[in-house]
């Protein structure tokens, strides 16, 4: 397989992937003001998951998730699992796509049909995937810098206003002990940290693959820090009560920016910034699905696969839920329990165990 | 180079054309386009309740500038007030559109004014309305008036014919002067759900008492107290500032103190802050408030009999700051009396403070907090300083005669 991604690009891709849509929501509202602690502590499990994925990858350093599954399970079961993962990646891309089209329709284009701006959005994504991962990762390198700069800028803008950041809103810290809070917020394992599963498709593309483990762990930690900073920011500005009752708390925080009379109403810039994050997230998921399909079907020209996949994402994103609350409810409940957890945690662990048992048996036979 | 050309020839150029065409048509907004000349910008929203429980909504809308350009003498913009009624706020606005030819937009809104009757019935609808859609911002201030909100909007103050702008400036001043509390719709939303569930907001009225002043003017002074979303009482300007002393928010203002021989000295407050130390022992709540303040001497009036040469005798300053302590203490006490005896409402947000600082003990008294609050022991300690005496080092009348 041709190596295309540098190690720094890999780091950026991995950081931006969960961040893309996780920054939109109040993850773990059950934990109230302690959500940021949960985000930090569950990153440990995120690291653990990465170690599992990378251990699996190290056994087959030239293969992706879709191609080593048949080598472990045999052709029939392996291909079924591979197809399941392709469907899963497409579905994940669809969910994120819906998140962002709801964001646009709630905040800027209320009367426009979702199909119209969805079409514009998906054409850009199709074009990006058509051009391949090396272009996406070059672009991500550039945009990550912009995201970080605007992030820091907004931080300064918000804290420069008097009486807006009230750090006391974060109190009381862990009043019921850390365990009860962690119990309530276990879903954080699947979203955002478990989503890094998609990189099992991209590991073989990284040039310096001996550094993958180190960089993956670093990027999960960066991710956790970024997300918990976001969390601290909107809890301390909006207050826990209002933050839990708004759909997009971070954006609501940016809407507070008002520096005397001339600098306000900057939210459209931040919507664009969120869209950039979302764009890369959808791109990576969809690219993984396209790559997987081409590997299963042994296709040589993979570029044109991006078009049917893009159309599928656009149409199914409109069909997966009747309205926004239903979309969120299935996304944070049903999908996590029955889709994310098995796909992200159970199947990889079983695969690793099967690999070890198989090797044990084979070695015994040799002796 | 050839490869690049071939690359573009085949597919990319088509894709590029499609993208450019679709975006040039769609990104301008086919259904959501807003053109500034064709919009009515609402600068103030007034809400009242009539006798049949219908909601009266009054809007102050800026008039588009091309009309005022013809009349050269009017430098400031003009505005018109529209009134409509309906079962809900949005219903009323919808009814308005029968007579108003332009769509209205709330993005430039400066304030929400609530009539007394509506406030007594509960302001939840307006808070919900203002936070649900992206037109209005979570930074919009909310004010209450003793009469009808319509009258406030129709008022033309001498400094600016558009009352919304006047109110906006008044609110900005009071953020530091603290004679009226300034509360936004976001604060209301948070306070309604919070532990003590008491919010205060400023009161705006037309100044009727001041008859010498030919021009009517708006007055923002005192605060209205809400439990959950219902108006339960009022506080005057002094009590409001007492409350803000305890919260540590007073940043500007004047304070009059008396010396031993009944002479008055005005002090100019520069800054203040407060620290609160709560404790709950056996369901008995004890709160220690420590207020720190700094001020300058602004004016020494009337005949001074005692020696006020500050530079030779700095001890006088210490004595005066003791007097200042007393004055601040008295104001804070006014607020405590109002809160505990008259309103029996936790205007200082001590409920949240206790929840933050002692969450376990708070859970045991949370249910009875409204009953317990009037008996809470609040101790106030003030330590203030006088930093400057201004350009004069001593009173001018000091030498010549008393």
Q: Name the beta content range of chain B.
A: 25-35%
CATH architecture of the domain at 238-402 in chain B: 2-Layer Sandwich
Assigned CATH class of chain A: Mainly Alpha
Return the CATH topology of the domain at 238-402 in chain B. GMP Synthetase, Chain A, domain 3
Mean pLDDT of chain B: 81
Can you give the helix content of chain B as a percent range? 25-40%
**CATH architecture descriptor name of chain A:** Orthogonal Bundle
CATH topology value of chain A: Hydantoin permease
Order of helices and strands of chain A: HHHHHHHHHHEEHHH
Distance between the termini of chain A: 34 Å
How much is the radius of gyration of chain A in Å? 21 Å
Number of helical runs of chain A?
13
Helix content estimate of chain A: over 70%
**Head-to-tail CA distance between termini of chain B:** 99 Å
By DSSP (H or I, 4+ residues per run), the number of helices of chain B equals 13
The CATH fourth-level homologous superfamily of the domain at 238-402 in chain B: Nutrient germinant receptor protein C, domain 3
């Amino acid at each position: 397989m041709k190596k295309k991604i540098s190690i720094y690009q890999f780091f950026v891709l991995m950081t931006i992937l969960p961040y893309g849509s996780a920054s939109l929501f109040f993850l773990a509202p059950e934990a109230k003001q302690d959500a940021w602690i949960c985000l930090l502590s569950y990153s440990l499990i995120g690291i653990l998951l990465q170690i599992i994925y990378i251990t699996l990858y190290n056994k087959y350093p030239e293969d992706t998730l879709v191609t080593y599954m048949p080598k472990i399970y045999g052709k029939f079961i392996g291909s079924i699992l591979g197809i399941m993962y392709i469907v899963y990646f497409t579905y994940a891309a669809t969910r994120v796509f819906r998140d962002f089209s709801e964001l646009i329709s709630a905040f800027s284009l209320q009367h426009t049909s979702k199909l119209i701006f969805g079409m514009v959005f998906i054409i850009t994504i199709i074009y990006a995937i058509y051009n391949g991962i090396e272009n996406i990762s070059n672009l991500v390198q550039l945009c990550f810098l912009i995201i970080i700069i605007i992030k820091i800028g907004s931080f300064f803008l918000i804290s420069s206003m008097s009486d807006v950041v009230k750090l006391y809103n974060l109190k009381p810290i862990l009043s019921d002990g850390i365990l009860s809070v962690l119990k309530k917020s276990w879903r954080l394992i699947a979203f955002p940290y478990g989503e890094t599963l998609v990189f099992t498709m991209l590991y073989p593309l990284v040039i310096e693959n001996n550094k993958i483990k180190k960089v993956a762990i670093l990027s999960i930690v960066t991710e956790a820090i970024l997300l918990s900073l976001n969390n601290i920011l909107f809890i301390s500005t909006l207050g826990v009560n209002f933050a839990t009752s708004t759909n997009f708390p971070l954006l609501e925080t940016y809407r507070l920016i008002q520096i005397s009379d001339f600098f306000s109403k900057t939210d459209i810039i931040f919507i664009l910034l969120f869209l950039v994050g979302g764009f890369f997230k959808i791109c990576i998921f969809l690219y993984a699905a396209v790559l997987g399909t081409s590997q299963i079907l042994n296709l040589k020209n993979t570029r044109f696969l991006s078009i049917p996949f893009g159309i599928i994402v656009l149409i199914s994103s409109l069909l997966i839920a009747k309205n926004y609350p239903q979309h969120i409810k299935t996304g944070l409940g049903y999908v996590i329990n029955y889709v994310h957890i098995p796909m992200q945690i159970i199947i990889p662990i079983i695969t690793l165990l099967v690999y070890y048992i198989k090797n044990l048996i084979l070695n015994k036979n040799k002796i | 180079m050839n490869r690049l050309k071939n690359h573009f020839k085949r597919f990319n150029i088509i894709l590029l054309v499609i993208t450019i065409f679709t975006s040039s048509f769609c990104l301008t907004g086919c259904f959501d386009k807003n053109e500034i000349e064709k919009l009515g910008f609402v600068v103030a929203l007034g809400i009242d309740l009539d006798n049949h429980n219908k909601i009266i909504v009054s809007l102050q809308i800026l008039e588009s500038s091309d009309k005022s350009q013809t009349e050269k003498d009017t430098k400031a913009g003009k505005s018109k007030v529209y009134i409509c009624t309906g079962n809900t706020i949005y219903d009323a606005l919808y009814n308005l559109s029968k007579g108003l030819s332009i769509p209205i937009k709330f993005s430039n809104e400066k304030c929400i004014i609530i009539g007394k009757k509506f406030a007594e019935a509960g302001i939840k609808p307006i808070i919900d309305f203002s936070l649900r859609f992206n037109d209005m911002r979570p930074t919009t201030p909310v004010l209450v008036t003793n009469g009808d909100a319509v009258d406030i909007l129709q008022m033309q103050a001498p400094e600016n014919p558009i009352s919304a702008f006047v109110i906006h400036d008044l609110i900005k001043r009071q953020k530091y002067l603290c004679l009226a509390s300034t509360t936004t719709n976001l604060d209301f939303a948070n306070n309604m759900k919070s532990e003590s569930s008491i919010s205060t907001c400023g009161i705006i009225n037309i100044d009727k008492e001041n008859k010498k002043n030919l021009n009517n003017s708006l007055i923002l002074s005192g605060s209205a107290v809400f439990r959950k979303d219902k108006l339960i009482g009022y506080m005057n300007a002094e009590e409001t500032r007492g409350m803000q002393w305890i919260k540590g928010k007073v940043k500007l203002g004047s304070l009059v103190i008396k010396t031993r021989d009944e002479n008055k000295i005005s002090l100019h407050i520069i800054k203040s802050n407060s620290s609160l130390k709560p404790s709950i022992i056996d369901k008995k709540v004890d709160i220690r408030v420590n207020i720190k303040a700094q001020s300058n001497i602004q004016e020494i009036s009337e005949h001074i009999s005692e020696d006020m040469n500050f530079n030779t005798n700095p001890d006088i300053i210490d004595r005066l700051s003791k007097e200042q302590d007393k004055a601040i203490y008295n104001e804070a006490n006014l607020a405590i009396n109002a809160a505990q005896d008259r309103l029996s409402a936790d205007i200082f947000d001590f409920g949240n403070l206790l929840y933050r600082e002692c969450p376990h003990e708070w859970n045991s008294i949370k249910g009875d907090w409204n009953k317990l609050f009037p008996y809470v022991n609040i101790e106030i300690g003030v330590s203030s300083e006088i930093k400057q005496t201004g350009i004069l080092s001593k009173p001018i009348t000091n030498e010549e005669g008393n």
